[in-house]
Amino acid sequence: MRLMRVEVTPSGSATSVACVSPATFKGLNAAWGCYASLQCCGLHRPRVFCLEIDGKLAEERGAKLRIDHWPSFNEDTSASGCCNAVTSGGEVVVKAVAPSDIRVVQYLALAPAGENLQKLALPFVKSLLRGRILAGRAASIALRRDGLDYGEWSYVAYFRGCSGDGLDGEVVAFDGGLVTDETLVLLFPSATSSSATSTTEKRKFQPVGAHARGFRELVAMALRATSMPLGDGTAQTIAAPHSLLLYAPSGAGKTTLVHQIAEELGANLLMLDGGLLASPHLRLEDFFSAALRIQPCVLLLEDLELMFPMTLDETKYKLVCRLVNCLESIQNEASVRVAVIGTVSVLGALHSKVRQLFTEEVFLDVSVRSLSGVIPSRDVNPGVIVVQQVPDKQWTVELLTSLLPTSNMLRREFLMSLAVRYGQRPSNIASIAQQICLRLSRNDSHAVGVGTLESEIAASAREISSASNGADTLSSSIPDVSWDDIGGLERVKQNLIEMVVWPLEKPQVFRRMGISPPLGMVLHGPPGTGKTMLAKATAKASGCNFLNLSASDLMKAEVGESEKAITRAFDTARALSPCMVFIDEFQSLFGNRSTAGQTTSRMISQLLVELDALKAVSDDSEVHGISSEHVGSMTSVAGGRIFVLAATNALSAIDPAFLQPGRFENVVYVGLPNASERKAILEIQRSRMPWNQDVDLTKLVEETDGANAASLIALCQAAAIQAMQRIPSDAPVDEQCIAMIDFVAALAKGTFDFQNPDE
């Protein structure tokens, strides 16, 4: 190791050759064909050159080393502020490196670093790169030859194994490598292409909950090329699954999860989407060949349903055939350490032939976590891996707090509540964290007060959640309806508080008393009595998301689609948990099977299955002692609870199977308001509208005997219209109010549903 001066002499070509005098070569104890490591003070990484002897340097005094350029590296650029940190006359520490210590680049992803670069043929690019030594795994390289400059090119270099990985334990001092004739070089259209992106950046958080450990185990099996015993006492094993299909809604964190697992396992990661295959320089076989060269490797095929939709043209069909050959070449080799992972957002949109190519299918349910990991299933399809899951939302809280700076402006309880209520997907949590950081960075954040700041952040989080749910055609929210907005019905309110609000607010008490919280309830009674308002107020009081299912959400024209719509609705409810599912006009969708058609019968059967599944999850939570006490008092609603509330005008028309214990076992009657309840409803309307002092509230209560809540509200609206017609537009503001004569006129003109309460 010697301290030497560097002479940078630009030539017509960019090479990786460093020339020294014969004496200097001998002083370095170098052998023919060895390399030299040049370390400059203040730079992160050394540069490696092929060491050669130049007799002309023997005539000069002092130890000198001559190169034609100093390779740039991203980390050094940010540290020193210039791309060529070493100039002529600078001093570097030189050390001889044996050829065995220089890794050979197995795969090189190359893309133009600037705009308007001339298009180069791949064989010519390979000739320019032959013999070059790359400064690191991800950097840029200058291509020059014979006085012609072909510009700067960004690259990502891949090697067999991985630096410091968790599978091989290999640690290397030099992060770069040598490009040889055997190196596979692929040209990408731009540096932003997914496969030309570095995957070495460290992530600071776990993107998904513990339920992803089962999927991680499958990937680890493929990368280690090991099999897993069945665990039934026999010698039978499950072969390592080299092809995995990961499906989940958009924004659930599929790509982030694969990045995290590849990083944890120390594997190389290649990414491929349909846009890259449109390039004339890239073929599907090239990516599989690259994966085999850089084992252990994870090959990620993103958005498979866009690459292989249900309807295939001739070009897509040929691509499917090529995919079959590529997957078979990996699956037929027992020692291959490659995991091919395909991601799908809409599983039904993927072509069935492509779906059959993958050994395992894994659903990424962001609302649950794994209890016991990977369990072999003895279902119809052998080898299918099943993950047993129970509700848990602790990871949403941890993810949100990990993305936020340390600040005393926001209460921890408030952040927990945000994560539980609106963190249905990792993308939602990241967006919420970004909004919080923007609010905290404002100059007036300290002046507006904590309460106002939290209200603004909660409103933004609600918009983010609604926007993401809108993509699933099912919108949810926390309704802005309180108990005070509903006049009367105190008995019904108390029933709802005891059956819905208390299990969420006091889960420890229910568990200690041995009470199983109800999972469903039916509100029945005449139309217009406030059943929908009661459902919304209950969701607001409990802090649940509110999922309102209508006939258009569930009734589909295609055979089997209605049952799928019910399943998707409850999948959405699980992601939104804690959530209240409200089904209005229940008898019109789920009538008696003895008189219903085939579609209704299938829908009833599917809903019964979903209700029984909720009951099974609730029982499992009690058996395993799963609770959310460790999350905090404000996140006691985080137990993954789903409550189904149905409203009907004809209880007798509902199929009797729904009224069995464990389903809608609680039936509450919502009748017409009595005199005191009608008075309470009218008083609420008076607080929202300008009434004259001559309005006789007692007389109105008497005149509206038999009216439902909707009719009373309609009466007040009609009286307001009468007042607008009666009062001149230029009248003073204090005279623009509703008088008793307006109510009398409204009662005479209007058609209101006044029924006999005794009927």
How would you describe the overall organization of this protein?
The chain is of the alpha/beta class and 759 residues long. The chain folds into six domains: 100 residues, Barwin-like endoglucanases (Beta Barrel), CATH 2.40.40.20; 95 residues, Vcp-like ATPase, Chain A, domain 2, CATH 3.10.330; 175 residues, Rossmann fold (3-Layer(aba) Sandwich), CATH 3.40.50; 77 residues; 193 residues, Rossmann fold (3-Layer(aba) Sandwich), CATH 3.40.50.300; 75 residues, Helicase, Ruva Protein, domain 3 (Orthogonal Bundle), CATH 1.10.8. It is 37% helix and 19% strand. The protein contains 25 helices and 27 strands. The strands form seven sheets. The chain has a six-stranded mixed β-sheet with strand order 2-4-3-6-1-5. A hairpin with an 8-residue loop joins β20 and β21. α22 crosses α23 and α24 crosses α25. It is elongated.
